[in-house]
From TrEMBL:
It comes from Salvia splendens (Scarlet sage). It comes from the Eukaryota. This is Sulfotransferase. Keywords: Membrane, Transmembrane, Transmembrane helix. The chain crosses the membrane at residues 27-49. InterPro entries: Nod_factor_sulfotransferase, P-loop_NTPase.
Length: 348
């Protein structure tokens, strides 16, 4: 009889049959992924470098960006040589980059009202007249330094208290005839014409008045009547009266030769620069007729404005009251082409 083995299966709790695996550390997984990415990256870079090494180096080509051209369609053909769009090196004209700029030069002689006239121009919000730039000798030492200075002025890179910078519509300077202008007149005329610079001639009709003003101003350079300071122009009637109190003595033996010399200088300047676009003004005409200032603004093609100046005239009234030896002057000029200078030509 065979043996029968009986296997008794013990009943165990249900949960005891589940085998639990140990938890994996997420940090280890992340490190493995990171190492895999790095290995792939190194491999890809090595392949790329081999490919680049087998070919000539490719250079990136840089193309200049074309600047926006300013619209000049509405400018008359005859005016285009006098319209400019400067590109200053010292600042950016920004929104005014396409605002046209006119170049000008005030050509004059000392004590002809040019300082007063320039303050009138500078009271206009769009005009910058930078003063007597060539009074400094080194700037007019030769034609090269003159041109270099002019280029800087007309490129709007010359800064003075008169500079309007970005939105300047007319820029220039005051230039006396004895400040290298006549000495280098041929080269300067060529420059003015080639650059489209307009000339404003400003002179005095009565050269005797100018001479008296020069003598008085020369005296004050040494005497310094205003609290030990010399002033060629004043802004108060009090200071004007102090300067006008000096009455010079005119050397009548040199009177006519001096008047003739200045007259010749003025005539030569207008002859030398007659090919330049220009306007001729006289101090007395501006005093008597302020509409002359409208002519100037139209000449410069700027919007019309009321122009003003803080300067106060120093010498007023008749010439006889401004000199010590009026009788001698009358005798010297009587019967000469300069006799008309003896008469009062305007009243203030």
């Amino acid at each position: 009889m065979p043996f029968v083995f009986t296997i008794q299966i013990l009943s165990l709790p249900k949960d005891s049959l589940i085998v639990k695996h140990p938890k994996k550390n997420p940090l280890v997984l992340r490190m493995l992924v990171l190492m895999f990415v790095m290995v792939c990256g190194v491999y890809i870079c090595s392949v790329c470098l081999k490919q680049i090494g087998g070919h000539p180096t490719v250079r990136l080509l840089s193309y200049p960006v074309a600047e926006r051209a300013c619209d000049v369609a509405d400018i008359e053909l005859s005016e285009k040589p006098y319209v400019h769009y400067p590109k200053p090196e010292t600042f950016n004209r920004e929104e005014c980059a396409c605002n046209p700029v006119r170049y000008f030069a005030i050509l004059s002689t000392q004590r002809s009202g040019s300082g007063w006239f320039e303050t009138l121009l500078n009271s206009h919000m769009n005009i910058s007249s930078n003063g007597e730039i060539f009074s400094v000798k080194v700037r007019r030492s030769n034609i090269s330094t003159i041109v270099e200075t002019l280029d800087k002025i007309y490129n709007l890179d010359w800064f003075t208290s008169a500079s309007k910078n970005e939105c300047t519509a007319a820029v220039g300077l005051k230039w006396m005839l004895n400040q290298g202008l006549m000495q280098h007149h041929e080269e300067i005329a060529e420059y003015l014409n080639s650059k489209g610079v307009s000339a404003i001639f400003l002179f005095r009709r009565n050269l005797l008045r100018r001479m008296i003003s020069i003598l008085a101003n020369s005296f004050d350079q040494n005497a310094k009547l205003l609290n030990g300071t010399h002033k060629s122009h004043v802004h108060s009637t009090h200071d004007a009266k102090i300067l006008a109190s000096y009455k010079p003595v005119v050397n009548t033996s040199l009177l006519i030769p001096n008047l003739r010399q200045v007259e010749d200088l003025v005539n030569k300047s207008m002859e030398y620069f007659k090919s330049t676009r220009h306007i001729i003004l006289y101090y007395e005409d501006i005093i008597n007729n302020r509409t002359k200032l409208v002519d100037v603004q139209n000449f410069l093609r700027v919007p019309l404005r009321d122009l003003s100046s803080r300067q106060v005239k120093i010498h007023k009234g008749s010439l006889a009251s401004q000199v010590e030896n009026w009788g001698d002057i009358e005798k010297a000029l009587e019967g000469t082409p300069y006799q008309s200078y003896l008469h009062e030509d305007y009243k203030l």
